[in-house]
Amino acid sequence: MRTIWHTSQSMHRFMLLAIAPFIGIFLALWMMNEEWQLSPASADESGGSPVAGQAETVHQERTDELLKDLEQSEQLALNIQSAIQTSIQQYETMTRLAGEAYQSASVQSKRPLAIYDRRVTAKLGKRIGSISSDKLHMELYPIQEKTYKGYAVKIELKSREAMKMVLGKDRMGSSENTLQAVKRYRAAAGINAGGFADDHRSGKRYPLATTIVDGQYMGGFYPTFKDLFFVGINENLRLIGGKFSRQDQLDQLKPMFGASFVPILMLDGHKQSIPKKWLTSPKRAARTIIGDFKHGQLLFLIIEGTDDFGRTGATLPELQGLLSRLEVMDAYNLDGGGSTTLVWNNRVMNRIPDGQLRPLATHFLFFR
């Protein structure tokens, strides 16, 4: 695009340089015409002198010369007009060719990403649902592995209005289940977000560690401790995440919203070491994973589990294997177990471990 812009500038400079001499000639002709109009008056100043006949002859010769000059000027003007038309045609041709070159370059630049997207989509399998608008495009796929099952949601964000994270009932300390949040916001879909901590004295449920909603820190910034991470979406609609010891480190990424939990599963396409506790407590469980692909689209994995005791669901290493096969770049484990919830068109898609939806502190919502 930058090359096309410079080409356009060069064409504008070319047009100015091409027309400038013609403008100068027109000005000169106009001044000569003014001078010619004044000349007859000055030749008449003698007012009937004895040499009137001679003056008339001189005046006639002067008129003939002026007429001849006018004819030449007229021809020159026609030549200038022709040259200007030729220059305009050349300019229009160059503009058209530049536009065609831009369109071609744009198509060519998107082709590798389109090929990559088709490869990823093929690995996800048969699509069972989609939600599409000028804000986003979401695709729903079933996951059926030997030891677990669930859903994958692939999302292309096109607008900052396509996705947001909300607090339970929009208040710190409050909670509601994901279906309630979806209905309250009239969202197209919803997925549970970050972890939470309960204040048993007040009965309130607070989001865990660093939490950002609408660009604002809810309760302040919390430096990373133990295995916690922050994950969210920035102003460029890209997934951002990691461990941050200072707020300015996170601010540089321009987060719009995000939550915290543990552990990080993938970074730059490489599996990350999983803390021992999260390998066994529980070993298997319902899981919610957020990740992204090389071309910037998002992936959510929602894995079902029938109980909270580690007997069903998926292990985190199993999901790392799936993420690697799907060519996911970065991936983060969100709150799971009874918190894992996928709402699609006002319908809860996954089986809930304890039979009823859990009230949560944060939710990811998606809008048509």
TrEMBL record:
Keywords: Glycosidase, Hydrolase, Membrane, Transmembrane, Transmembrane helix. The chain crosses the membrane at residues 12-32. Residues 41-60 are annotated as: Disordered. Residues 186-367 form the Phosphodiester glycosidase domain. Pfam families: NAGPA (PF09992). The keyword Acetylation does not apply. The keyword Transmembrane applies. One of its GO terms (molecular function) is hydrolase activity, acting on glycosyl bonds. PANTHER family: N-ACETYLGLUCOSAMINE-1-PHOSPHODIESTER ALPHA-N-ACETYLGLUCOSAMINIDASE. This is Phosphodiester glycosidase family protein.
